[in-house]
Fold this sequence. Notes:
Elements: E1 2-15, H1 19-30, H2 35-39, E2 42-44, E3 47-49, E4 53-54, E5 58-59, E6 63-65, E7 68-80, H3 84-95, E8 99-102, E9 105-115, E10 122-127, E11 131-132, E12 134-138, E13 144-148, H4 154-171, E14 179-183, E15 190-195, E16 198-203, E17 206-210, H5 213-222, E18 235-237
Antiparallel strand pairs: 1-7, 1-9, 2-3, 4-7, 5-7, 6-7, 8-9, 10-17, 10-18, 11-16, 12-13, 14-17, 15-16
GO biological process, one term: defense response to virus
Keywords: Antiviral defense, RNA-binding
Family: Belongs to the CRISPR-associated protein Cas6/Cse3/CasE family.
Amino acid sequence: xxxxxxxxxxxxxxxxxxxxxxxxxxxxxxTKKFDYLHDEGIIVDSKTMKPFSxxxxxxxxYEVKDNSIYFGDEIWIYFSSxxxxxxxxxxxxxxxxxxxxxxxxxLNISSIRRLRxxxxxYALVKTLSPILVYEKVLxxxxxxxxxxxxPKDPEFCEIIKYNMSTKxxxxxxxxxxxxxxxxRINPTNKRVLKxxxxxxxxxxxxxxxxxxxxxxxxxxxxxxxxxxxxxxxxIETI
Length: 238
C-alpha cells in the first residue's frame, strides 16, 4: 500500500540529506503501537529489516544553496509498506494532527491519497528515491570492506534479487519470478547522500522489473535494494 501526502508551509528549507527527518516522522507516528519496528524490525535470516519506504521530497521548483534545499511553499512525499496495518496507523495518527514538523518546518496537511497497484508480469519503472546496493566483505586481516555497486555491475542486480527473496520470506512470498534490468543509466543518475554520519552512493534511473503481481507489488510496497527505511529504493511506473 502507498500514500501520497501533500504538505504546505512557508519557505520550506531542509538540508540536502534530509532523509533522516522523514524516517523520524514515520517512526514518531507509529512506534507507540508498533514499538518493535524502531528497536528490532523484522528478523529474516539473521537480518534486521524495516518494512517501509518513502520517496524523496517533490515540489514544483527548488533551489540548492549553502548545503540546503529551498522547496518553496508546497511539497509532496510518498510513503509505502507491505503491511497495510502499519500504513493505516501512520495515516490515522497523521490525520489527528493540525500540522507536522519536518526539520524546522511546521507544515499543514493539504491532502492524503491512497494509491494501489495491479501488475501483469512486467513494469517499466523510475525511481522516486535512489536505489542503494552494496555488500560488506571480510578482509584477511579481519576488517570489513564496503563494496559499492552501480547498475552496470552484475552484482547490482544480483544483490537486489537476493534482497527481494529475503523480503519475500518475511511475507511468505516466493520471489523466484523476479528480475530487474537497468535501462538508460548514466553517471548523472548517481546520488551521493548522507544518512546521519554515513555517506552512501545510490542510483536513480529507469528499470524494467519482472515478476507476478504479488512479487511486483512487494517491490513497490517495500522498495528495491537496501536500506529502504532510510529513504532508498522507492519506484513508480512510467
